[in-house]
Amino acid sequence: MSHLNRIQHYLSTEGIRITFADVTDAAKEAQEIHHLPSLSAVIMGKVINAAAILAMDFKNHEGVSLKWVTNSPIGVIHADAYEGQYVRGFLENPDDGSVPYSPEVEPSYVSNEGKLFVTRYSLLKLPYVSAVDLKKGDVAACVSDYINSSDQTLSYVGIEGKVDEKGQILRMAGFIAQLMPEGDEKLFHELFNDQKKWDVFEESDREDSLAGLLKKDNYVLLSDAPISFRCTCGEDRIKHSLQGLPKKEQESLLEDDHIEIACHYCGKKYEISRETLTKWFNEDKGGNVQ
Fold first, then answer.
1. What residue ranges do the domains of the chain occupy?
2. What backbone phi and psi angles, to 5 degrees, belong to 147?
3. What pLDDT score was predicted for residue 123?
4. What pLDDT does residue 286 have?
5. DSSP character for 209?
6. Segment 30-57, tens digit of pLDDT
7. Between 172 and which of 27, 96, 264, 276 could a Cys-Cys bridge form, CB atoms 3.0 to 4.6 Å apart?
8. 255 vs 109, 238, 246, 275, CA distance in Å?
9. From CA 129, how far away is CA 131, in angstroms rounded?
10. 241, containing H or E segment
11. Beta strands 219-226 and 6-12: pairing type?
12. pLDDT at position 281 over 60
C-alpha cells in the first residue's frame, strides 16, 4: 500500500467502507503559502484532510467545503476537496507561533463551543449544507461527531499530523471508516473505538497499522488517485464576484487606476485595471458605467 499523497477508497466483505487520504504535500504547500507556525499548520492540514475523506462519493466526483468556526484565536478555517483529487484551505487568523503544536492543545483551538458547516456538491444532487455544534475534542473527533449526527451512519475518523523540530509539516494523513447497511456492527466496534488507535503512517503489517488492515484479503480497493493542493481561483471567478456587487461599490472600485485582489487560498495576486472593470460592469448591467 503506497499511500503518500493518495486518496483511496476500500470496501470489505464485512460491510465496512474506508476512505483513506494522505495529503502530506498539500499540507506542506498550505503551510508554505500562508507562512503558518506548527499549531496552525497541523490544524489546517487536518481540516484539509477532513475535507478529502468526507468526499466519499468518488464515482460522482463529490466535492466538500468546510467552514470551521472555531470560536478560538485562530478564527474560521476554510477547506475544500473537489474532483476527487484536489484540496485547498486557509485560516482567517493564524496563531503567532508562541504555542507549539501538541495533541493536548489542539482541542482548545478547534472545538471551543464552535460550529462546523459542511457543504456537499455532487453530479447527482444540488449542493446542500449541514452543520453541527462542536463538542470538546480534536479535529478527528469533531468530524466523527458531525458524520455520525448528520448521516446517522456509524462512523469513525482518525487524522494524524507530524512536524519536525522547526514546526514544519512532515506527514499528514487520515481516514474515515463507515459501517454499511447489513455490515458487521460487532466487528466495526472492535476495530474502530476510542481505545484502539490506528497508525496511518506505518506501511508494515504491524497489528496497529491501518495499511496492514487494508492489505487483508477482505478489503477491496475500489479507487486510487493522487491528491494535491490546487486552487480554483482565476479572473473569471473574480469577474463574477465583482459583477454581483451593488452599483455604489462597483463605482468606488473605479476610482483608482487598478485594484489588486489576492486569493485567500493560494495567495496569488490579480491586478485588474479600471478599463477591465468598466468592461465587466457594463457586461453585467447592460449600461454604461464610467
1. 6-229, 235-285
2. -70, -35
3. 72
4. 52
5. B
6. 999 999 999 999 999 999 999 999 988 7
7. 27
8. 41, 18, 15, 11
9. 7
10. helix 235-243
11. antiparallel
12. yes
CA 229 and chain centroid, separation: 10
Calpha distance 137→114 (Å, rounded): 11
pLDDT, tens digit (0-9, with 9 covering 90-100), for 90-135: 999 999 999 999 999 999 999 888 999 999 987 767 788 899 999 8
CB 89, CB 30: distance < 8 Å: yes
Highest mean pLDDT among 214-218, 223-227, 241-245, 253-257: 223-227
- At residue 71, φ and ψ (nearest 5 deg) are 55, 35
In single-letter form, the type of residue at position 84 comes to: G
- Measured between alpha carbons, how far is residue 276 from residues 50, 89, 262, 289, 290 in Å? 38, 29, 17, 12, 11
Report the SS3 class of residue 144.
helix
Positive or negative: CA dihedral 73, 238, 57, 32: negative
Residue found by looking up cell 460592469 in the block: 281
Alpha carbon distance 74, 88 (integer Å):
17
Give the 3-state secondary structure of residue 87: strand
Grid coordinates given for 290: 464610467
The fold of 235-285 is: CBS domain Like (3.90.1280)
Q: What angle do CA 134, 138, 140 make, to 5 degrees?
A: 90
Please tell me the predicted confidence (pLDDT) of residue 285: 60
Q: Pairing state of beta strands 16-22 and 169-179? A: antiparallel
What Cα–Cα distance (Å) separates residue 197 from each residue in 19, 36, 54, 138, 172? 16, 28, 20, 14, 16
The superfamily CATH assigns to domain 6-229 is Hsp33 domain (3.55.30.10)
Cell numbers of 196, please?
A: 484502539
Set of cell numbers at residue 78: 476554510
Report the pLDDT averaged over residues 247-270.
91
The arithmetic mean of pLDDT across residues 280-286, rounded, is 75
